[in-house]
Amino acid sequence: MTDDAAPNAKDQFRPAGHENEHFLMTTVVGSYPKPKWLDRARELYQGGDTTKPREHQGEHAEELPDFDEDAWAEAKDDASRLITNEHERAGLDVVVDGEMRRNEMVEFFAHRIDGYEFNGPVKVWGHNYFDKPSVVSEVEYDETWLVDEYEFTADVAERPVKVPITGPYTLANWSFNEAYDDLESLAVDLADLVNEEIGKLVDAGARYIQIDEPALATTPDDHAIVGECLEHIVDEIPEDVRVGLHVCYGDYSRIYPEILEYPVDEFDLELCNDDYQQLDVFKDPAFTADLALGVVDAHVAEVETVEEIKANIRKGLEVVPPEQLVVSPDCGLKLLPREVAYEKMANLVTAAREVEADLDAGEITVDAAPASADD
What we know:
By secondary structure, the protein is an alpha/beta fold. The protein has a single domain (10-360), classed as TIM Barrel (Alpha-Beta Barrel), CATH 3.20.20. The protein has ten helices and twelve strands. A seven-stranded parallel sheet has the order 1-12-11-10-9-8-6. The chain has a three-stranded mixed sheet with strand order 2-5-7. Strand 11, helix 9 and strand 12 (325-328) form a beta-alpha-beta unit. The longest helix has 23 residues, at 338-360. The chain is globular and about 60 Å long.
């Protein structure tokens, strides 16, 4: 799936009338700062208890403020439309709705998968809590998770839409397992559910899927489990569907080059926040997939200049040639002030277009050779 001549190559996402010969696709990882009014709307809908959806508050649901399901749905639609348009205004080639409808990357999916249940928040660090779910029976697929979200976003967007999905390994690893003999068997069953959801997304028109596996960064010895899950995820997925894998910051030397065996088109890696100290990890052996390189730091509220981002993009060209490079933030941007997130995206796009022009003019020497189909 990493042959650049295949139909899922980046050129299907190239905007009409793109002014440069080179094309460095720009996108976001997924999450984005929510408008403050959306958080207030959630509080009104959930009656102040933001750890539970209204439908899971039992007999107390009738006592909640008069902010009903329709009002909450309208608020989420408005936020999704706003952030999708904001991404397009920044100039991104592929957009996301900023995950406006999602609360937390595991909770959101666990509420939609039969076999999970919730028993209250657990403390994870400081004063932060996570409503960690438990798997109490065999997981099963019921209703779609993201099709409505995708269809709405695609309808309001003028650019192609990417769909981020929390990966099965993270869904398994960040849950209490009370039903399966081991983590691997749970993760593989979840991978089959993810595959089913992707099939429905593809039927709805989606052509760019991103699997998020932050747990891999903290448990790299399980990279073989993630690889097995990905084999299940991409089974019978059409060749024109681009599949990426986002892995948060960690010791990448413990999973590279093994991850090159994964059946994905793109690896989205968090390298900016340590000033690319791990860049050399990916130079030997040669990086054969597309590299979605983080070129702005998602954890710092200072906006990188266009020149700083251009320098970061050129670091990516030390690993892969232009046709294998994608430009994105390091990670999800949801913890940043919204105006900072937007300025980072706008500068990222400007930097990518300027690097493309420099490549067209022969002003940048690229040492990395294109990956061959036999690699």
